Amino acid sequence: MILSEKERVKRYREDWQVTMTTFSPRWLLLLVAVVLLVTAAGCLKEGSAGVTGITVEPVNVTAGKVVLNVSTTVQHWSGPGLGAGVLRIEVLDDETGLRVHEGTQEFGPISPGTTVVVPYELTLPRRGSYRVRASLAGGGLRGTGGEVMVRSLERLPPDTARTPITITDMDFLVRGVANGRAQIETEVQLTNQGTGPNPDLTVEIKAREASARLLADRQWTTVGAVRPGATVTRNVTLSVPDQHNYEVEAVLWSGDVIVERGSRSVNLAPNATATGGQEFTVRKIDTGEFITARETGAMVPVPVPTRTPGFGVPASLAALALVLLGWRRNHG
C-alpha cells in the first residue's frame, strides 16, 4: 500500500511517541548516570590543601619601616596532585581592623602528601601590632587559611643600633614609706650575650600606674663596656605613691635610638577578686613591712696580728731571765 506524504508523516510521529513513552524511564536513568559521572570526575580533579604554619621574621629594620619575610607552609591533604596555586597575604591593623596591605604570591604544583613553603616579603611601619592572614587560591584546590599576630613592631631595634646587651631580669626592694609615698629601689640586670664589646648605653627606668597609665617616676643611669657573657646590675630608686599597681619598664638607649626594653609589675594596691556571686576576697599589702635596709657593700674588717722583726716581748723577757739565772749560779 502506497501512503501519501501526509500519512507517512503522521505515522512517523505516532511511532516516535510510542518509542519515547516506552523508553523514557531508561533515558532518565541514563541521563542521571551521566550527570553523576560528570560530577564525580569534577570532584576527583579537585585536591584539598591548607595552610599549616606561618612564620614571620624581620629582614630589615630602619627607624620608620620594617621589612618582614612571611613564610607560609602549605600542605597537601587529599585528592590528586595540585597544580600551580596562588597564596594571598592580607595584613590588618590590630587596633583599627583596617587592611594595610594585600598581595599574592604564586607557587608551583604540590604532589600528594607533600608540603611547600611559600616566601613573601612585605613592608610595614615600625609601630603597632598587626594580623597577618594567608589563604589559598587557584590550582583547582580547596583549602583553609591561617593567621598570625605580629605585635609591637616599635620594639624591634634598627639594624644600625643593634647591641649585644639584653635585659635579663629586674628586682625590686622597698627602701622606705613616708607621707603616702614608697621608695622602690629597682635593680636591672644587663648581660652581654654577644661575642664582642658593646657601645656605651643609657638606661631609662620608669614606673607607670597600671590603671591610669600615668608616669609616676623616671630615673636614668648608664652602662659602659661589659665583657661577653658577663652580667652587670644598675640600680635606681623610684619614688611612687603607695597603694597603687605599677608597670616598671627599663629602656636601653643607644644615643637617641631605643635598642631594648624590659618590664615587670610591682603591685602595692589592695587586690580584690570575685570568688563567686557576691563574695569578694580583699588583700591589703602593708608596704612598710617590706622595707629593707640598704646594703653598704663594705666588708667587715678582720683583725690581723702585727709582727715586728726579731723576737717578741715575751721571748725577750724569757731570754733575760735565763741570763740572770746563769749569772747568779756562776757568782753564787
Give a written overview of the molecule.
- This protein starts with a helix and ends with a helix.
- It has helices at residues 5-44, 313-330, and strands at 47-61, 65-78, 85-93, 99-107, 115-125, 130-137, 141-144, 146-150, 165-178, 181-192, 201-209, 215-223, 231-241, 245-254, 257-267, 271-276, 279-283.
- The strands form 5 sheets. Strands 5-2-1-7 form a 4-stranded mixed β-sheet, with no helix packed on it. The chain has a 4-stranded antiparallel β-sheet with strand order 4-3-6-8, with no helix packed on it. Strands 12-11-14-15 form a 4-stranded antiparallel β-sheet, with no helix packed on it.
- Helices cover 17% and strands 49% of the residues.
- With 332 residues, the protein is an alpha+beta fold.
Provide the CATH superfamily of the largest domain: Immunoglobulins
> According to CATH, what is the topology of the largest domain?
Immunoglobulin-like
Q: Specify the structural class.
A: alpha+beta
Oligomer: single chain
Shape estimate: elongated
Assigned CATH architecture of the largest domain: Sandwich
Mean pLDDT: 79
Strand content: over 45%
**The level-1 CATH class of the largest domain:** Mainly Beta
What's the alpha carbon Rg, rounded to whole Å?
42 Å
- How many distinct helices? 2
Q: Which blocks of ≥5 consecutive residues have pLDDT under 50?
A: 34-45, 298-311
Structure summary:
The protein has two helices and 17 strands. By secondary structure, it is α+β, with helices and mostly antiparallel strands. It folds into two domains: 109 residues, Sandwich (Immunoglobulin-like); 132 residues, Immunoglobulins (Immunoglobulin-like).
